[in-house]
Design goal:
Structural class: mainly alpha
Helix content: 40-55%
Low-confidence stretches: 55-82, 88-111, 265-269
Radius of gyration: 33 Å
Mean pLDDT: 79
Number of helices: 24
Distance between the termini: 88 Å
Largest sheet: 4 strands, mixed
Strand content: under 5%
Number of strands: 6
Strand order of the largest sheet: 3-2-5-6
């Protein structure tokens, strides 16, 4: 067996990001509040980093030079319009020593209870032992914000055995489950929409209409959900007026009962804080402002370049101290540089968007948004597509009429040679469907022809795609009696 050794050369081109570039990319993608938190963390962790003194905040007006000698109580009493509005406990004499504790009543907002807390408090009204209470609370813990059950009962039996150490049968578990389903608001504990509607109907005061509505949801839910009203009328032998009354009963039910408690807002809902502000004056001149809530940073004085120098006769501790100072100084310098790069990049990208979407920012009319893709912004700013994508992700601009995500302004042309934006077509499509005959809604083919007659050269499948983007169902499901 022969063996041979070979030497070969291979040329390979690789692109590697420096640690500074990696940190810049991450910070560019952050939202404003996330960057503010990152700055606070850096100020706490790095002693070489400090916030610049704001001289504007130190300027005193003529009125501010007056001596301030009001007590805390006087400041609080000044919040009331007159003496009649001041609560009695604020005016009562405090004949106690300075060391005594004094408790003031405070306003407590009980409306902030979560769905789980509300349901658990109702369990106290039932005569349950500790095991039953634990099982009921575990079931409630598996409800989503809308009140729907997120786990199968068989899976909960396994969870209770492994996580809580409680062994129960499916029959016993269903008994506790039915207690949870009897809590308020009606419909909580449902496994799907059909079950949710049935739970609510069975708690209503029974009447002929409620009985028919229950029959429809229980036995003909598919026909109801697909709006096959003619077939429902034929099967149940109902007149048009009777069916309308029954449908009114069904549509009065709440498909998301848990939202009564949560207000339709989940914990994951994020408060939108705009990153940019747009103002338009009477001469239609646009002013762009980067809403900078990030403090100006600088290097702390004791971390100067001279402190980083290692002298020839320095001791070991002095060398270590100089190395530490240099490391923290470099980190602080890099952090300040990255923040500046982020601010400049965001401003350049937004400035390019304003230039291309000038008509929209003058009117706030979404139909005036012109076709624009990442390459268009790259051509103006010179930045890479990935940089632009990160710079616009999760960012918002505030105008005089509303707050919009930057991603709203990116839309492709329906056709390469067409300068019409998808937003314009969406607006026209929405208007066509809004004004259609609800008893004979337009098909996608008919909508396509109307758009063609209006001068929009568009295919039927594109109309279907845009209709779905608007969250509008097909013609059959838009039909009304």
């Amino acid at each position: 067996m022969e063996e041979s050794l070979r030497l070969s050369t291979e040329q390979k081109l690789q692109q590697r990001l420096t640690p500074l570039q990696v940190q810049f990319v991450k910070m560019l993608e952050m939202t404003g509040p996330e960057v503010e938190e990152e700055v606070r963390r850096a100020l706490d962790d790095n002693p070489a980093l400090e916030q610049c003194d704001n001289d504007d905040n130190n300027n005193l007006t003529e009125d501010s030079t007056e001596t301030f000698n009001e007590s805390a109580e006087e400041v609080q009493l000044a919040d009331y319009r007159d003496e009649d509005d001041i609560p009695s406990y604020r005016l009562e004499a405090r004949n106690h020593s300075a060391d005594d504790k004094y408790f003031e009543p405070i306003a407590v907002d009980s409306s902030g209870d979560t769905l789980i807390e509300t349901l658990n408090s109702q369990l106290m009204e039932f005569d349950l032992d500790e095991t039953q209470q634990a099982i009921a609370q575990y079931i409630i813990g598996n409800l989503d914000d809308n009140g729907y059950m997120t786990r199968d009962l068989n899976a909960i039996i396994d969870d209770l055995a492994f996580n809580v150490g409680i062994d129960v049968s499916i029959t016993y578990l269903k008994q506790i489950f039915n207690i949870v389903r009897s809590l308020e608001p009606a419909g909580v504990g449902a496994i799907d929409l059909r079950d949710c509607l049935l739970l609510q109907l069975r708690r209503k005061e029974q009447s002929k209409l409620v009985a028919i509505a229950t029959d429809i949801i229980d036995n003909y839910f598919d026909l109801f959900s697909k709006m096959h009203y003619d077939r429902l009328r034929s099967i149940l032998n109902l007149s048009i007026e009777e069916l309308k009354e029954v449908l009114a009963v069904i549509t009065s039910l709440n498909p998301k009962p848990g939202s009564i408690i949560t207000g339709g807002i989940s914990d994951s809902t994020r408060h939108i804080i705009p990153d940019f502000s747009i103002e338009v004056n009477d001469n239609e001149e646009i002013t762009l402002t980067l809403l900078n809530r990030i403090p100006e940073l600088q290097i702390e004085e004791t971390f100067s370049e001279s402190a980083c120098e290692i002298k020839p006769n320095a001791t070991r501790s002095q060398r270590e101290a100089a190395t530490f100072i240099k490391q923290k100084r470099d980190e602080a310098s890099g952090f300040i540089k990255i923040l500046k790069m982020r601010q400049e990049t965001l401003y350049q990208v937004m400035k390019a968007i304003v230039k291309l979407q000038h008509d929209f920012f003058l009117t706030d009319d979404e139909s005036r948004i012109r076709p624009m893709i990442l390459k268009d912004i790259a051509a103006i700013t010179g930045h890479d597509l990935s940089v632009i994508s990160r710079a616009t992700a999760g960012k918002y601009v505030m105008t005089q009429r509303g707050t919009y995500p930057l991603k709203l302004f990116f839309n492709e042309r329906p056709k390469e040679d067409d300068d019409t934006s998808s937003h314009e077509i969406l607006a026209v499509l929405k208007d066509i469907i809004s004004n259609e005959n609800k008893k004979k809604p337009l098909s996608d083919e008919a909508i396509t022809q109307i758009l063609v007659d209006k001068g929009y050269d568009i295919a039927r499948r594109t109309v279907a795609k845009y209709r779905e983007r608007l969250g509008l169902p097909v013609a059959r499901l838009r039909k009304e009696l």
